[in-house]
Amino acid sequence: MSSSLSRSFLFVPANRPERFDKAAASGAHQVILDLEDAVAPAEKEVARGFVAQWSGRADAVVRVNGAESTFFAADMEMMRRAGVAKLMLPKAEPASIERLAASLDGPRHVIALIETVRGYAELRRIGASGLVSQLAFGNLDFGIDSGVTETTQELDPVRLQIALESRLAGLPPPIDGVTTSWTDPAAFGSAVGRAKALGFGAKLCIHPAQVKPVNDAFLPTANEVAWARRVMEAADGARGGAVALDGKMIDAPVIRRAELILSNAPASI
Question: Which of 70, 173, 187, 238 sees the fewest Cβ atoms within 10 Å?
């Protein structure tokens, strides 16, 4: 993942405009204005107005209501009128992708949120749709739909498959789902670390306190950068010949991993 890609996505209820600027100033790489779960049905219309107004002067992703819902058509009409370029589609499945495609008036950056067993089973079709720019994992809703209770690692096989299908489709590394607690740094750090190890490149956040740990966690560590530099120095010195480092052979996959680490490393390391 290039360090220029967004690593933190912070949800903000779309009916709370007083929080929009605060979210944008939190350090989050992307703000998600949430028209779906965070907004009661009676407040959807006024929330759309807030989204349209703020989107005209700031960059944001808008999570629309599900394509099967009665609110979807109005959400998409607002998106077209306001010229919103980025959207998140909840409960993404092939049928909802088709409904979305029929509702668009031009190219959009579409994040498909995988929240159902059917969506998971159709990952390959979703990734290959030509409409989706990135996959994200809606772990909470997926747990409800699948009947799997996630305490720590129960849904990691699903995460791995999402990461593999993203790779197969030529999409950026996917976005991991939310961790509901922000008061336990150790548990949160463990969750982010597992997501990174499974091939994810970003995470959904529900509180500003989660943003900096996420931004930092998805970057290479100082030790990883130091190792990568040593690998590249050894490989350069060998000029194509066989070479070992720390008792291990340096071959093409090792060099490629070192190159990826250095390409993602911040300038400060």
Answer: 70
* DSSP calls for 168-221: HTTPPPPEE---S-SS-HHHHHHHHHHHHHTT--EEEESSGGGHHHHHHHTSPP
Best CA proximity match to 173, nearest among 139, 205, 196, 206: 196
> Quick check: pTM over 0.85?
yes
Task: Using only the alpha carbons of the chain, give its radius of gyration.
Answer: 20
E strands, the chain, in order: 8-13, 30-34, 61-63, 86-89, 109-114, 134-137, 175-176, 202-205, 244-245, 248-249
Q: pLDDT in tens for each of the 269 residues of the chain?
A: 444 589 999 999 999 999 999 999 999 999 999 999 999 999 999 999 999 999 878 889 999 999 999 999 999 999 999 999 999 999 999 999 999 999 998 889 999 999 999 999 999 999 999 999 999 999 999 999 999 999 889 999 999 999 999 999 999 999 999 999 888 888 899 999 999 999 999 999 999 999 999 999 988 878 888 888 988 888 887 776 677 888 788 888 888 888 878 877 776 77
Contact 67, 94 (CB under 8 A): no
Q: How far apart (Å, rounded) are the C-alpha atoms in residues 154 and 192? A: 15
CA–CA separation, 72 and 234 (whole Å): 56
Within 10 A of 229 (CB to CB), how many other CB atoms are there?
A: 15
Query: CB burial class (10 A; 0-12, 13-18, 19+) of residue 262?
Result: middle
Measured in residues, the chain has a length of 269
